[in-house]
Write a structure and sequence with these properties.
Blueprint: H1 2-21, E1 29-41, E2 45-56, E3 59-70, H2 74-79, H3 112-123, E4 133-141, E5 147-148, E6 151-152, E7 154-160, E8 173-179, H4 184-195, E9 201-208, E10 211-219, E11 232-233, H5 238-251, H6 278-282, H7 308-313, H8 317-323, H9 340-352, H10 359-371, E12 375-376, H11 397-409, H12 415-425, H13 434-440, H14 456-459, E13 469-470, H15 472-483, E14 487-488, E15 491-492, H16 496-502, E16 507-511, E17 516-520, E18 526-532, E19 547-550, E20 556-560, E21 565-571, H17 582-606
Antiparallel strand pairs: 1-2, 2-3, 3-4, 4-7, 5-6, 7-8, 8-10, 9-10, 9-21, 11-13, 12-13, 14-15, 16-17, 17-18, 18-19, 19-20, 20-21
Helix pairs in contact: 1-3, 4-17, 5-9, 11-12
Length: about 600
């Protein structure tokens, strides 16, 4: 029976397979055979799975597809003799990482649905009356290694249909990537975000120890070119990386957290700032959340303002604005230094680094080159073409008004949107909320309009706190180093004692621009234990035990030294979140679930 199916599929499906695999004639199809197939039945639908071997002039490829068919198609599937014997295994690497190796036309990636439908339709001899829905498919080098120490590393693509009538971004999407056995819950949570139309392009990468246990990414029709290597602005996540730079300076004995900033940068000490310490700056208590008139700190009309383009042209402008500002600590000391913290760290670095490097240059030479990662900040316009950078996407204004703003007005919707509206309405007598003053300092009258990060001139600005571009793979790798005591894959950037010191002396306080109650260590990492406030998501308890920070719109960079876990999430769809949100809470909760299950399994194995 199986031999008949092999012969039938090779004779009938050669043309369809050729069109599916190669659209420009660079590959000669020599043989095709069905290796495995089966139907898994349930009460309402069945899943039909195929594994096909394809021999070409460039070697052998393995093809895997899983189709979903409704109950009334059972008999036709059986007549086509598509009953599988065994569960399919997943052979290793996606074609999307092997396009050049096999000379495959990249246009294939954007027409995969049509080609796959044609292929399977021919494979079953046109016996199906309706096209079944594609659930997943995979192509990769046949015989590639896919076994890990803890089981098979699953690598495949999932088409995620929309599960909502209307959402803020696109419709569904395609999710690709790998996860270790036991970490499937994270991939499922990632796919759910796409099913809710919350994503355009996004990535999630997790390390446990030095093992990468999750590496998934997805995109929809708005950004079909988005890949696992695509970079995007990660906003506040850049503050985690700048805190790592500060820890490296401490490790080298170039400064200490309890030193006064003015010890190394005398100009900073003006206008009441001479007692500000480096640790206070790292905790967002440096007194310069925006650029005030030192003679009238409360008058928003006297605040000094600039923009990314001006900072790009004049590298000393941001430092001058910081040093000439007064000490702003009205009500409480902690006001989010969304941009200025990176400016202060950069000014200190230039003055203590023997080579006088900027933050962007230091990150490239001392971190990226050594770890083999991509993190850029302050990209000259002439060099921007060499990077695959995706633009961040804003919520459609009509959707935002109907499904975010109006519900918040009547006491419903998301807490973060309601908090945003409340802060804008609660200040009178010519005062502006600190949150709005912070955003306006760099020309953003609307804090939810990150347009400067999408422009060539904006990307030139070396502002690490808000303008760092990278991908989740690079983000996760750099914090995996912190989760493992300062060393990763034999590369040590700082002593284990330095990592411990950077995470010490947590001070919990209320951050006034977001009304966020949280702890910050002397090294500038948020300690997420006890995170609370209107801008904190209802499920933020998932972050307990982690250190790190999040970026505006939803990106997140975390690490947990106790469990040796590093978590990174980057995306282009800008949600209303400031620190985490619906997407990251579900992903981190799923990671915690997988980790707990692994610990239980290990315990029973030991017994």
């Amino acid at each position: 029976m199986m031999q008949d199916i092999h012969r039938w599929s090779a004779d009938t499906s050669m043309a369809a397979a050729a069109e599916f695999i190669d659209q420009d004639g660079s590959i000669t199809l020599e043989d095709l055979s069905v290796l495995q197939h089966r139907t898994i039945r349930s009460e309402k639908k069945s899943h039909t799975e195929f594994k096909v071997s394809v021999t070409t002039n460039n070697g052998k490829l393995a093809f895997y597809a899983r189709y979903s068919a409704f109950r009334d198609l059972y008999m036709e599937l059986e007549e086509a003799e598509l009953i599988l014997d065994d569960m399919l295994s997943f052979p290793g690497k996606l074609i999307f990482g092997s396009v050049e190796r096999f000379n495959l036309n990249p246009d294939f990636l954007h027409d995969r649905q049509r080609g796959l439908n044609q292929f399977v339709k021919a494979l079953v001899g046109n016996r199906l009356k309706l096209y079944p829905q594609v659930v997943e498919f995979f192509i990769g080098p046949e015989g590639s290694s896919h076994e890990s120490d803890e089981g098979p590393l699953v690598s495949y693509l999932t088409e995620v249909p929309s599960a909502v009538l209307i959402g803020p971004f696109g419709v569904g999407g395609m999710v690709q990537g790998t996860q270790e056995s036991g970490w499937e819950t994270v991939r499922h949570a990632f796919e759910v975000n796409f099913s809710k139309d919350l994503e355009c392009g996004s990535q999630c990468v997790i390390y446990h120890g030095e093992k990468k246990v999750v590496d998934v990414h997805g995109c929809n029709a708005k950004q079909p070119q988005y890949t696992d290597d695509t970079m995007q602005c990660v906003f506040g996540c850049g503050q985690v990386i700048e805190a790592i730079v500060m820890a490296m300076l401490v490790d080298r004995g170039l400064l200490r957290y309890d030193d006064k900033v003015g010890k190394y940068w005398p100009e900073f000490s003006k206008h009441g700032k001479r007692f500000v310490t480096i640790a206070e700056v790292m905790r967002h208590e440096g007194g310069v959340p925006f650029f005030t008139d030192p003679k009238d700190l409360s008058d928003v009309k006297k605040d000094r303002k600039t923009c990314f383009a001006a900072v790009s042209k004049d590298r000393g402008l941001a430092e001058s604005l910081v040093s000439n500002s007064g000490l702003y600590r009205e009500t409480r000391p902690r006001y989010y230094h969304s941009v200025t913290r990176g400016v202060i760290i950069g000014a200190l670095l230039k003055r203590v680094d023997p080579e006088g490097r900027t933050l962007g240059t230091f990150i490239q030479e001392e971190i990226c080159v050594k770890l083999g990662i991509k993190v850029v900040c302050g990209i000259p316009e002439a060099q921007q073409g060499i990077y695959d950078i995706a633009a961040v996407q804003q919520v459609n204004k009509a959707y935002g008004l109907a499904f975010e703003v109006l519900p918040a007005f009547v006491g419903g919707g998301k807490k973060s949107v309601a908090a945003e509206l409340r802060t804008r309405q609660s200040f009178g007598d010519g005062l502006s909320p600190p949150r709005i003053r912070i955003a306006a300092a760099f020309g953003e009258e609307d804090p939810k309009a990150p347009l400067q990060q999408n422009t060539a001139t904006g990307r030139e600005a070396e502002l690490t706190s808000v303008n760092m571009h990278c991908n989740a793979r690079s983000m996760a790798k750099i914090t995996a180093l912190l989760a493992n005591g300062g060393e990763f894959e034999g590369i040590r950037l700082m002593a284990a004692e330095t990592v411990t010191a950077a995470l010490e002396k947590t001070r919990v306080d209320k951050e006034m621009s977001m009304e966020l109650i949280c702890g910050f260590t002397q090294g500038g990492f948020c300690n997420f234990d006890g995170l609370a406030g209107p801008f904190a998501h209802e499920d933020s308890a998932a972050f307990r035990g982690f250190f790190g920070w999040g970026g505006r719109g939803g990106s997140m960079l975390l690490f947990n030294p106790a469990t040796n876990v590093s978590f990174a999430y980057a995306m282009t769809a800008m949600g209303p979140e400031e620190v985490g949100g619906e997407r990251t809470c579900s992903l981190v909760a799923a990671a915690n679930e997988a980790l707990k299950a692994a610990e239980v399994s290990e315990k029973y194995t030991d017994i």
